[in-house]
Design brief:
Blueprint (H helix, E strand, L loop, with lengths): L1 H14 L11 E5 L7 E5 L5 E5 L5 E6 L9 E6 L7 E9 L5 E9 L3 E5 L4 E3 L5 E8 L14 E6 L14 E4 L10 H8 L6 E6 L3 E9 L10 E8 L2 E4 L4 E4 L3 E3 L1 E6 L2 E5 L6 E10 L10 E4 L4 E4 L3 E9 L4 H4 L4 E7 L1 E9 L5 E3 L3 E10 L11 E6 L5 E6 L5 E6 L3 E13 L5 E17 L3 E3 L2 E5 L8 E3 L1 E3 L5 E5 L5 E3 L4 E4 L4 E9 L2 E13 L1 E6 L5 E3 L3 E12 L2 E4 L9 E4 L5 E3 L12 E7 L3 E11 L2 E12 L3 E4 L3 E4 L4 E7 L12 E7 L5 E5 L9 E8 L3 E12 L10 E10 L4 E7 L18 E5 L5 E7 L5 E4 L4 E4 L4 E4 L18 E5 L4 E2 L2 E5 L6 E5 L7 E5 L5 E6 L4 E6 L3 E9 L8 E8 L1 E8 L2 E3 L3 E10 ...
Parallel strand pairs: 1-7, 9-15, 17-25, 27-33, 35-42, 44-51, 53-59, 53-63, 61-66, 68-74, 76-82, 84-91, 93-99, 100-106, 109-115, 116-123, 117-125, 124-130, 133-139
Antiparallel strand pairs: 2-5, 3-6, 4-5, 6-7, 8-10, 10-13, 11-14, 12-13, 14-15, 16-19, 18-23, 19-20, 21-24, 22-23, 24-25, 26-28, 28-31, 29-32, 30-31, 32-33, 34-37, 36-40, 38-41, 39-40, 41-42, 43-45, 45-46, 45-49, 47-50, 48-49, 50-51, 52-54, 54-57, 55-58, 56-57, 58-59, 60-62, 62-63, 64-65, 67-69, ...
Length: 1754
């Protein structure tokens, strides 16, 4: 009861934690105690509290773990009351922060009753100790919250009911917790330490028996409270075998065993024994039985029960020292004695009565009573079983006949008969049953199932279903179930038709008998890579015009052996012939047959032989087979064609042509046979050496008697050989005639004394015969008979030669004919040159594979014989048809090739010298990279002793080098000459690299969209991939693999990896791959929503797809000019639609909103609509240049199920199948936690949890309850039950972090460059709820990899994205095993640092960088520069000054949140100009007060120069210069002011008319550009060349000349201080030097006086005073003469610059001169900016500055 109460309280507490803080218990019931203090710990879930009690005398409260604020979250409650009555104290806990008050009622009352709690009343020996606990109640039956520290006395007392068992109280002992592995509450440990006992103890059994345990409170006030008692029974672990109820026949028996479990092992007790005995009890005799007789007897000595009569009785295992109460808990069973009802047959294995010959089976005969109970069959029953000997062989049978081990022998149907006949008693007497029990079993026996053939081997083909085969089956019942173990290799139909599929491997085809699945036949189908190819033995010679069938065998590797493939007719084989024109390849392939899987068919066209090569290449499989075949013309007589005519006694040398030639591979097997019809008339024989090719055959026929048409035959052929097992044999027949001659003809005779070879040229009478210019020919005579037939031989006649006529006489003949008339013959001769050979000298290598040819010149007769001067050095072959002598070297040396003309007589043959050299060096050339599993060619070259490479032998040999394992190795070529000497080449390094693959395998794009093709594998380090297109009009590809759709269509992109050939330096292809690209137009769109019904408060991603699954956002998300996506809902209050990244305060623009996030706001049904618009309809994004596309789906939002009364918050754990979750609680490490999955169907397959809180879901889906219990150290058990639901994942969703804060609190439209984002992947079920665990394997991809870097995050289910470049990237994430679980995002990246025009600066520019991003608290970030020497920046405000040229990076960093940057290029202006202000300024951005702290003016300087060479001092001697930067205007200024000048300096400047040239310089930079300057007028003031004027009567007037600039003179005012002196302007000269000349005269002479003349420059406030002296007439000349005599000629120049000097301010603006096209304009503006004289009014003068005319062009 107490555990249940705790559970309810804890559950109520946990369910409401989300509302407010609570105490762990609202009411506490504590017992009254005077000798000890009872404590209870109160604890709040959260907060810090001050604790108080309104009645501390009843119950006090004391805080524990008090912090510095004098508060705590838990306190100890202690019972203080001493009155034996129910008192209550209210405990209050006040939160020091919120002021919330928690209340707990502390009740102190006396104990009225105690009870002992126990989970069981039985103990087994050697079991773990049993925990007993006191349960106390008050008078109302309420349970006390704790009995901690209350003293109890536990005693074992004698049980009055067990008085007959004196040692019963010694069967149990009380244990201390310290003696066990149990962990008790802390107070129990403390009490045990001082020897006291508390409310919890441990007990364990010592020996079997009964015992009684009593507990009593030791407190004095509870002396009247009765003790709590519990009675326990201690037993041994005893088993009875068999333990189930047994059915026996009368007269049979069964033996029982008694077993004991001790130390984890089962041992058998020897019965009888001292402790236990078997008893038969409670017998019940069946009706009609003997009630006085027992049902069964027990033989105690053997523990055997004998059945006597029908009925039943109980067998009981009794303990001799226990009473009936204990005995009832010992093992027992019931024995039924019954009569047999029927027999049943069982067979093992499979329990099916369809058997197979040759198999062995176990057959059981079971006996059942009439109720269907199985009867135990003892050895003394007798069952007779009849097995037909024709069908079965009995191998073994049991004594009682219930078990038989048999073997099936013969096919057929038969019956097994079984009869229960008798029972044999103990004396051996047989008691037959009155009614024997009989049964029979029908049996069908079939032969084993055999599939033919046992093995089928097929070559792998890329085409699925390339081969089919119908499998033959014998044996079995005829009804089969077909199956294939590997359906990717081969499948089989219900009719046994096997079809190969697509994979390489083995598949076992099974035919299971439907009548008994245990019986089956199998055969193996191997689809293997072919490893070898050869031709089967066949006919290889064919007469011209006939065809040859060349069967082909292909082998595969099977279990280490090579096996012949069954069918290779679908092979795409390449057939080549070394010599074309000999045979013609016929269409089609030979069908598979015995001994071959395919073959080719050829037709003989021309005589000769050739090697036919069949090759097959696919992937890394490269097979070839070669066979030599020959074509021969039919054997026919040439000379004569049909009839040979000779004289009697003469012979005819007949010539036959054609027929089979000597087999080229074994010419020794060639034969020619001769036969004649009448050997007495004609004798036939072969004569003379045959031709080299045996194309002609010479037969000599000798006439023995006159006659007509005697037949002679020549048979030509080869004997069988390995390479020609079925040779061709050809016969030819000629008729032979003996007759007298009638006329003659002359023919030349060709005789070569060095050779035994005749000239094949046959000349007719009066034909031109070639003869040598240098040798005399020999002539022969031909004779013809009266029928015009030529005599083939008439050597038996005597002839007389004359110069003009020839007469004949017959020798050795009887004169039987009239004399012949004389005949004559004439012969024309053609003179020709002798034969010549070119070249006459040849050098070749001594290698058997090297051949060289010599061409025989077309002189001579045209009939030649070729041989060598020395044998053994080389083999020489003469190709007569081509006129070529071919030399194959055998050893080093020198020989001569000799060519003999067979039809010209000359003393010596034509010769050519051949030098054969040995090999000196071997060189191998191979590409240095090869893909694993593929091959490259290695070319071997050979050098001779002269180190010169022979053109014929540049590639002496070629080898295939195949990559096996990834790594690096070297390749060398080794040549062994005939002397055994090894010549090794230098090793060539080669790398084996993994397969090169392009990804993705298929790309679908719309027109204008782009996706990058990446690669994996390939050589490392990988060189650039060269991309090519199959159709350049459909798509384009860049060097980075960026594929952009141009027009609708399908094409492919091929990527090639190249390497450099180390010898030639040329690029060779080492690997390539191809992907398919489909460019489409969007016909329609659809909204991809994983679910359409979602709970309120759940999130779901949606995105736009095309019509097909391949048209993902990757296909159109980045198209240019682009699409815009506009989303809306029909009911705003049901569904909220947000852009992706909205949780990070990023608000994407419409062109990036192909994916959105929807939030279930409130219940209802709404439509989600998307509209896709083409910004430029003619761009072809949408089909038919549509303006927009629409789609809409309906989404139902429903409320989550909640419990309203009581109002508790119910949660559940969601897991995907086969996932793991580590549970954590707030009591981890504090309490003893245990986890348990409550009983439910398929619990193990659904959910499992271990003792450490690892929760594992199985493969099934469903819901289970998880119980979590915490055993606290203060004696409280807490338990919660949580529902765990295992559901499938319906969709995944990406969320973005961190949040992008801005100073204006507005969302940004793009991700700042340099930001690092973390994307968390959330998995949701079909309702939208988020799963707590999953087992998904995530994959991700981007449409390009040059803008962002994506990687797996630190935790499972997260991705980290680092932005590295500006632009748009599309990100896709999906489950590798479930492609439908996918999400797509747009990642637009932009600069966060402004202004944009600051990307390119000129040295001297002042920039105010700004960024809207800030920290979450609104604080701005910190600015920094990668180089302060180039760009100095204020870290707080971002104000910066460009100091020097170069490239620098500006950083803006918000610690812990964002680090963005921008690259800035700093240049110097190639032209520095000066002019009036008309364009922009050097201030970039907005003005800031901190600019002055950077002192930007230190970056520029002013340089001065006088334009006139008459000025011999520096401008810096008379000018002060000062540079400044005006932040309000953004201009640099250079202020010029005069220093105090000497009179000489003023004079020089006034008279020289010079200008000062001002140039702007940049500090700290090596300036190499053109510096243009501005020239300013110099205005030092006015200058007069007189200081005194003397006037008299003789000289009443004088001239005064004032010099100065034109502007200064215009403002000049001349006045006199005396009216007696008048000043008049006389002359003005504006040209250089400019001056004004005045006339000073006296108008009213008044005697001597001195007056002053004032020269006033109103603009400069310049005052000059001159003295005018008037003297009397008498004294005038004297005084004047004295003055002249005294001073000679004196000029006093007085410059009184009483006001401020002229200040010229030159504003300097530095800007890069970018556009050279405006240079002319610059020159025009700056050529002479001050053509007119400047006015002395400074207010009217223009301000001057340096500027760049192209500043605003950026």
């Amino acid at each position: 009861m107490r555990a249940n109460v705790l559970f309810l309280l804890t559950s109520a507490f946990i369910c409401s934690v989300t509302d407010a803080a609570k105490l762990n218990i609202p009411k506490v019931l504590l017992p009254l105690a005077r000798s000890t203090k009872i404590n209870f710990t109160l604890e709040a879930t959260e907060g810090c509290y001050r604790w108080s009690s309104n009645r501390p005398e009843v119950a006090s409260i004391e805080a524990v773990d008090v912090d510095e604020r004098q508060c705590s979250h838990k306190a100890v409650l202690q019972a203080r009351s001493t009155q034996p009555s129910r008192l209550t104290s209210i405990i209050l806990a006040e939160d020091i922060l919120t002021g919330q008050v928690l209340r707990c009622d502390a009740i102190v009352d006396v104990i009225s009753e105690i009870q002992i709690e126990s989970t069981t009343r039985e103990l087994h020996l050697e079991d773990s100790p049993l925990e007993l606990k006191i349960h106390a109640l008050d008078s109302e039956g309420n349970t006390f919250s704790t009995l901690a520290s209350l003293l109890f006395e536990w005693t074992v007392v004698k049980d009055a009911e067990m008085a007959g068992f004196p040692d019963s109280y010694n069967t149990l002992r009380v244990l201390r917790f310290a003696e066990s592995a149990y962990t008790p509450p802390a107070y129990i440990s403390e009490m045990e330490r001082v020897g006291h006992q508390g409310d919890i103890i441990l007990v364990s059994g010592i020996k079997t028996g009964h015992t009684k345990l009593k507990a009593k409170i030791q407190e004095a006030i509870y002396k009247d409270v009765g003790a709590a008692e519990v009675r326990l029974l201690i037993l041994e672990n005893i088993l009875l075998s068999p333990a189930y109820d047994v059915y026996l026949l009368a007269g049979t028996s069964i033996k029982y065993k008694v077993q004991k479990i001790r130390q984890g092992k089962i041992t058998e007790l020897s019965m009888p024994c001292d402790q236990y005995e078997l008893l038969l009890q409670n017998r019940v005799v069946a009706p009609h039985g003997n009630p006085d007789a027992p049902v069964a007897n027990l033989d105690r000595s053997s523990s055997t029960v004998f059945a006597l009569q029908q009925g039943h009785t109980n067998i009981v295992l009794d303990h001799k020292s226990l009473g009936m109460q204990g005995a009832s808990r010992l093992p027992n069973s019931t024995i039924y004695v019954v009569e047999p009802g029927y027999l049943a047959f069982k067979i093992h294995p499979e329990d099916r009565w369809v058997l197979e010959t040759g198999r062995k089976y176990e057959i059981f005969i079971e006996v059942f009573d009439k109720s269907g109970h199985k009867i135990y069959l003892s050895d003394n029953i007798r069952i007779e079983t009849m097995f037909p000997t024709e069908y079965f062989e009995v191998l073994h049978s049991s004594v009682n006949g219930s078990y038989h081990y048999v073997k099936a022998l013969k096919r057929g149907q038969t019956i097994i008969d079984g009869t229960l006949e008798a029972v044999v008693d103990q004396t051996g007497s047989v008691h037959a049953l009155s009614v024997p029990v009989r049964n029979e079993q029908d049996v069908e026996i079939y032969d084993p199932i055999v599939l033919t053939p046992a093995i089928l081997t097929f070559p792998w083909q890329p085409k699925e279903g390339a081969y089919q085969y119908t499998i033959k089956v014998t044996g079995g019942s005829g009804n089969f179930s077909w199956s294939s173990t590997n359906s990717a290799v081969a499948t089989v139909t219900v009719k046994g038709v096997m079809t190969t599929v697509r994979d390489v491997g083995v598949s076992v085809i099974y035919a299971h008998d439907m009548r008994n699945p245990l019986h089956y036949g199998d055969m193996k189908v191997y689809v293997i890579e072919p490893v070898r190819m050869e031709f089967s033995p066949c006919v290889v010679e064919a007469r011209l015009g006939l065809s040859l069938d060349l069967p082909l065998r292909i082998f595969g590797q099977l279990a280490g052996e090579r096996v012949t493939l069954s069918d290779c007719s679908h092979f795409d084989m390449q057939v080549d012939m070394e010599s074309y024109g000999v045979f013609q390849l016929l269409e089609g392939r030979l069908p598979p047959g015995p001994g071959h899987c395919s073959g080719v068919r050829v037709k003989a066209l021309t005589p000769g032989y050739t090697n036919l090569l069949v090759s097959y290449t696919h992937g890394n499989v490269d097979l070839s087979a070669k066979i030599t075949i020959a074509a021969y013309p039919p054997l026919k007589p040439i000379d004569p064609m049909s009839v040979a005519v000779v004289t009697l006694g003469s012979s005819k040398d007949m010539t036959f042509e054609g027929g089979p030639q000597p087999w080229v591979l074994e010419p020794s097997k060639f034969f020619r046979n001769l036969t004649a019809e009448d050997h007495s008339s004609v004798m036939l024989s072969l004569y003379g050496p045959a031709s080299r090719t045996y194309s002609r055959h010479l037969v000599r026929a000798t006439c023995r008697a006159l006659g007509e048409q005697v037949r002679g035959a020549l048979t030509v052929g080869n004997q069988p050989t390995v390479t020609n097992p079925f040779p061709a044999v050809e016969p030819a027949v000629v008729k032979f005639v003996c007759a007298p001659p009638s006329r003659l003809t002359l023919t030349p005779i060709y005789v070569n004394p060095q050779l035994d070879v005749s000239c094949p040229l046959l000349q007719q009478n009066k034909q031109v015969v070639p003869v040598s210019n240098y040798h005399n020919p020999e002539l022969d005579v031909a004779a013809f008979d009266q029928q015009g037939r030529k005599f083939d031989n008439f050597s038996s006649l005597s002839m007389i030669w004359e110069s003009s006529k020839v007469s004949l006489t017959i020798e050795n003949y009887e004169i039987q004919f009239d004399p012949l008339s004389p005949v004559s013959a004439m012969l024309d001769l053609l003179l020709v040159e002798d034969v010549r050979v070119t070249p006459d000298t040849i050098t070749i290598y001594n290698h058997p594979d090297v051949t060289v040819s010599s061409h025989i010149c077309t002189q001579g007769s045209g009939y030649f014989y070729v041989n060598a001067s020395v044998g053994g050095i080389a083999d020489i072959t003469f190709q007569e048809s081509q006129g070529i002598a071919q030399v194959v070297p055998a050893q080093a040396g020198v020989l001569q090739v000799m060519v003999h003309d067979l039809c010209l007589n000359f003393p010596s043959p034509a010769t050519a010298t051949v030098h054969i050299s040995d090999i000196l060096e071997v060189y191998v050339r191979v590409v240095d990279k090869v893909e694993i599993g593929k091959s490259v060619k290695a070319y071997v070259r050979v050098l001779d002793v002269t180190m010169s490479r022979s053109p014929e032998l540049q590639d002496t040999a070629t080898f295939l080098v195949k990559g096996l394992v990834i790594g690096q190795t070297s390749v060398s070529a080794v040549v062994i000459d005939k002397n055994g000497r090894k010549i090794t080449s230098a090793p060539q390094q080669i790398e084996v690299f993994p397969p090169f693959r392009l990804l993705p395998r298929k790309v679908t794009l719309i027109v204008g969209a782009m996706m990058q093709i990446t690669s994996e594998g390939g050589p490392q380090p990988q060189s650039n991939i060269l991309f090519s297109l199959s159709h350049e009009s459909i798509a384009s590809v860049s060097s980075l693999g960026h594929v952009k759709g141009l027009s609708v269509g399908n094409m492919s992109v091929t990527g090639v990896v190249q390497a450099v050939d180390t010898e030639t330096g040329k690029l060779v292809v080492v690997s390539k791959d191809q992907v398919d690209v489909e460019v489409v137009q969007l016909k329609a769109i659809r909204i991809r929503a994983p679910i359409t019904r979602m709970k309120t408060g759940t999130l779901m991603p949606v995105y736009v797809m095309g019509l097909t699954s391949s048209q993902t956002p990757f296909s159109f998300g980045n198209a240019l000019p682009g699409l815009t996506f506009h989303w809306s809902v029909t009911k705003r209050d049901v569904l909220d639609v947000h852009t992706r990244h909205a949780e990070a305060s990023v608000q994407l623009s419409a062109e990036h909103n192909f994916a959105m996030s929807v939030f279930g706001r409130s219940k209802g049904r709404t439509g989600l609509r998307v509209m896709v618009k083409a910004s430029v309809p003619l761009a072809g994004h949408l089909q038919d240049s549509a303006l927009e596309l629409h789609d809409e789906i309906q989404i139902q939002v429903y409320e989550k199920l909640q419990l309203l009364n009581p109002e508790v918050h119910v949660e559940e754990i969601l897991m995907s199948p086969n996932s793991l979750l580590k549970l954590q609680t707030n009591r981890d490490g504090l309490g003893s936690l245990s986890y348990r999955v409550l009983d439910c169907p398929d619990r193990a397959a659904l959910l499992q949890v271990d003792d450490k809180g690892h929760l594992t879901s199985g493969s099934l889906t469903g819901t289970a309850s998880l119980q979590i219990s915490s055993q606290e150290a203060f004696g409280v058990n807490q338990t919660i039950i949580v529902a765990v639901k295992v559901v499938t994942v319906s969709y995944l969703r990406l969320s973005t972090s961190p949040v992008m804060y801005t100073s204006n609190r507005e969302a940004v439209s793009a991700i700042p460059l340099g930001a690092v984002l973390t994307f968390s992947v959330h998995f949701h079920d079909s309702t939208g709820e988020t799963l707590h665990s999953h087992n998904s394997m995530l994959s991700f991809s981007t449409n390009r990899d040059d803008l962002v870097q994506v990687g797996k995050g630190s935790s499972n289910g997260t991705l980290t994205v680092r932005t590295v470049n500006v632009g748009l990237t599309l990100l896709g994430v999906w489950d590798s095993e479930q492609a439908g679980l996918a999400d797509f995002l747009a990642l637009p990246v932009q600069h966060a640092i402004h202004p944009a025009e600051a990307q390119r600066l000129v040295v001297g520019d002042v920039v105010c960088f700004s960024a809207h991003h800030c920290s979450c608290a609104g604080a701005s970030g910190v600015w920094s520069s990668s180089s302060s020497a180039l760009l100095e920046i204020d870290p707080r405000t971002g104000a910066a000054v460009a100091r020097d040229k170069g490239t620098v990076t500006v950083y803006y960093e918000i610690p812990g949140q964002l680090s963005t940057y921008r690259e800035v290029r700093l240049i110097t202006d190639p032209k520095v100009l000066m002019s009036t202000r008309s364009t922009g300024s050097n201030l970039i951005g907005t003005e800031h007060s901190t600019m002055a702290l950077l002192h930007p003016e230190s970056s520029v300087s002013c340089q001065l120069r006088f334009t006139s060479s008459a000025v011999d001092f520096s401008p810096h001697d008379v000018y002060h210069t000062h540079t400044a930067f005006d932040a309000s205007t953004g201009f640099y200024s250079c202020s010029l002011s005069f220093k105090p000048m000497s009179d000489q300096q003023v004079k020089v400047l006034s008279l020289s008319m010079t200008e000062v040239e001002v140039r702007a310089g940049v500090q700290g930079s090596l300036f190499s550009g053109e510096q243009l300057s501005v020239q300013l007028p110099v205005s030092p003031g006015i200058y007069a060349d007189q200081t005194d004027i003397i006037l008299s009567n003789q000289h009443p007037s004088a001239e005064l000349t004032i010099y100065g600039t034109a502007g200064a003179l215009q403002q000049l005012d001349v006045k006199s201080s005396s009216p007696a002196i008048v000043i008049e302007e006389k002359e003005v000269s504006p040209s250089f030097p400019s001056y004004i000349r005045y006339t000073v005269r006296v108008v009213k002479p008044q005697g001597s006086l001195t007056a002053s003349v004032s020269l006033i420059n109103t603009d400069q406030y310049c005052f000059t005073f001159l003295s005018a002296h008037i003297v009397d007439g008498a004294d005038g000349p004297n005084i004047l003469q004295q003055f002249i005599d005294s001073y000679q000629v004196m000029f006093f120049t007085l410059f009184a610059l009483l006001a401020a000097t002229a200040v010229v301010i030159i504003e300097i603006l530095l800007q890069s001169f970018v556009n050279a096209a405006v240079s002319a304009g610059v020159a025009k503006l700056t050529g002479s900016p001050f053509n007119n004289s400047m006015s002395s009014d400074t207010k009217a003068s223009p301000r001057l500055r340096l500027y760049s005319p192209d500043y605003n062009s950026r």
